[in-house]
């Protein structure tokens, strides 16, 4: 799922979930809210449901879900959990609060 076009200086985020669990839904909602607040128009979110394709967990070395991976800008960053602590997520993704 792509929620907004990514510009050259944008963020490419990948969220790994397992179906429609409460934690997965919370992680996606929290991520969308953070991106709309701090990265409007500068992000893409790809949601990967490991219930549909579990092989992707091994390929991307996912050990817990939900897991958020920032692919761009480099370096790659990982955050595990429902992303409810906005401050930790912003620090983890190197996003300056606006």
From TrEMBL:
<dbReference type="InterPro" id="IPR036249">
    <property type="entry name" value="Thioredoxin-like_sf"/>
</dbReference>
<feature type="domain" description="KaiB">
    <location>
        <begin position="14"/>
        <end position="95"/>
    </location>
</feature>
<protein>
    <submittedName>
        <fullName>Circadian clock KaiB family protein</fullName>
    </submittedName>
</protein>
<dbReference type="InterPro" id="IPR011649">
    <property type="entry name" value="KaiB_domain"/>
</dbReference>
<dbReference type="Pfam" id="PF07689">
    <property type="entry name" value="KaiB"/>
</dbReference>
<dbReference type="InterPro" id="IPR039022">
    <property type="entry name" value="KaiB-like"/>
</dbReference>
């Amino acid at each position: 799922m792509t929620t907004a076009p990514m510009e050259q200086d944008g963020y490419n985020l990948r969220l790994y979930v397992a179906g429609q669990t409460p934690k997965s839904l919370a992680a996606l909602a929290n991520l969308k809210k953070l991106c709309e607040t701090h990265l409007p128009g500068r992000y893409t979110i790809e949601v990967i449901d490991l219930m549909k394709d579990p092989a992707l967990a091994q390929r991307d070395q996912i050990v817990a879900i939900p897991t958020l991976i920032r692919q761009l800008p480099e370096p790659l960053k990982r955050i595990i959990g429902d992303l409810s602590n906005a401050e930790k997520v912003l620090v983890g993704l190197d996003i300056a609060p606006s």
